[in-house]
Amino acid sequence: MAELLQIESLSAGYGEAVVLSGVTLSLAQGQTLALLGRNGTGKTTLINTLAGATRQHAGTVTLGGVALRELPSHQRAALGIGWVPQERNIFKSLSVHENLTAVARPPRNGRGASPWTPQRVYELFPRLAERRTNLGTQLSGGEQQMLALGRALVLNPTLLLLDEPCEGLAPIIVQELLRAIRRITRDEGLSAIIVEQHPQAILAISDAAAVLDRGTVVFSGSARNLQEQPALLDRLLGVARA
């Protein structure tokens, strides 16, 4: 597979504070990477760095061969990064349908036999179709997360960044989101990096895995191999498996 994302010796953080140090990772086109680690180990900082929301101190990050360092967030989105942050960042004063149509764009370079449109998002999440005229403030937490994911999809990205998409949600909503993510990545072939506190759930739908500790990569390899080694997973995360 062709490499889509390459991260080499990355150091980044907020202002003068360095959170990530010497991070080297790569992701092939069509692959999903589970990004794991304890709280405070740099997972969100790495996602934010790829999205353009931190300060890059050293190293290189390229997407499809294009260096990202000098590009602001909106240009990274135009290049193909779809970002779903922990805060979701939906337009709460707009309706569900307005949220989707306000950011929708066609696929890059004519790619994608079935581009993501608001209608396809409604097919993926029927709950949103039922609430298409509701404002963002009138949605439950789970529905807001579905909308945040839908907003990223209608950008027709080449790389999807998901930062703890299941955090704080009811188990039935978590299962619905995981099924949707599996469809997007496994069936649709969209490349993704997923930060999640439930390692076994996300490893099951990922190709590769990386574990961060104190801002550095302490494991990089097959998601299946890590899933099948619970003792290693426990040791890397330093906590009981979810």
Name the poorly predicted regions: none
Fourth-tier CATH superfamily name: P-loop containing nucleotide triphosphate hydrolases
CATH class: Alpha Beta
At the third CATH level, what is the topology name? Rossmann fold
| Strand order, largest beta sheet | 6-7-8-3-9-10
Rg for CA atoms: 17 Å
What is the end-to-end distance? Answer: 31 Å
Q: How much helix, percentage-wise, in residues?
A: 25-40%
Q: How many H/I helices?
A: 10
Tertiary shape: globular
SSE ordering? EEEHEEHEHHHHEHEHEEHH
Query: How many domain units?
Result: 1
The averaged pLDDT comes out at 93
The count of β-strands is: 10
> Structural class, from helix and strand content?
alpha/beta
The largest β sheet comes out as:
6 strands, mixed
Beta content: 25-35%
